[in-house]
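Regression check, 6-O-phosphono-beta-D-tagatofuranose case 275:
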Amino acid sequence: TLKDNMENKISLELDTQNRVEIYFHGATLTSWICDNEEKIFLSSKSVFDNKKAIRGGIPIVFPNFGPWEKGPQHGFARIKKWTIKDSPRKIDDTLRVVLSLKDDEETRALWNHKFELEYQVILGVKSLKTNLIVKNTGSEEFDFTALLHTYFKVDDIGKVSVENFKGLNYIDKVKNGANEIEKREAITIDQETDRIYASTQNTLFINTGNEILTLDKNNLPDTVVWNPWIEKSKQMSDFDDEDFKRMICVEAGKVSSRTILKPDEQVAMTQTLKI
Ligand code: TA6
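Current build output:
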């Protein structure tokens, strides 16, 4: 049921043990309580000024992953105000809300295309599905990259491992974009890590130290693994110096190649998190 529908965010409560919180700013899901436990990391220093991207949660990266010449890095979707397209509704044993973002003068000034984004958030018992649909509502084709920049909450990064990447190519942004191959069964984090794995499996396993969280994805072929570690944490004003110990980003995306949409075409990209 829709609870405390404030002007900045909505909370969806499936039952007392399972609920999510979504800010209209960037349609940023900032909390996923599952079996009464928070699974998503949100920085205690995150700025909620409806300007800066929220530090944590699941920021939506569109129409560009990474730096670009048309505005802030990672595009404008995560810093625009989204609206409710379909109010929260019970569907079988899940609760679903749909949010949307359409082009406006501000976005067209940065990136001159007409689009509609639809973001379906579907909360189930022990699962959270997020489906991002990109529609080209204009008269010319455009291309984009997109990604769900999910911050997972962990107790101790030293106990975390991420699996199912062995043998895959990755771009190592910590080594000036060097092209490497993952040799490990399990990715562990003991230094700044910022890697773009291409053509990854559609099922990934995140061992948070407490449990194995499964990330199933569809039409999100790439996966970014990021932890800022010590130095980068100090450089982020909206992130505690010690917060690198309490989070890991495993980000399902479509970023290794640009997706082209012709007029009236659309594409859906889905991530389902399960305990
Ligand atoms: O997803 C990893 C990354 O691209 C890192 O390089 C780092 O920049 C991170 O995103 C956070 O970016 P942000 O713009 O949210 O500070």
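Comparison notes: The pocket of 6-O-phosphono-beta-D-tagatofuranose is lined by residues 53, 66, 73-74, 149, 173, 194, 224, 226, 249, 251 (CB under 6 Å). The longest helix spans residues 229-235. No diff flagged against the previous build.
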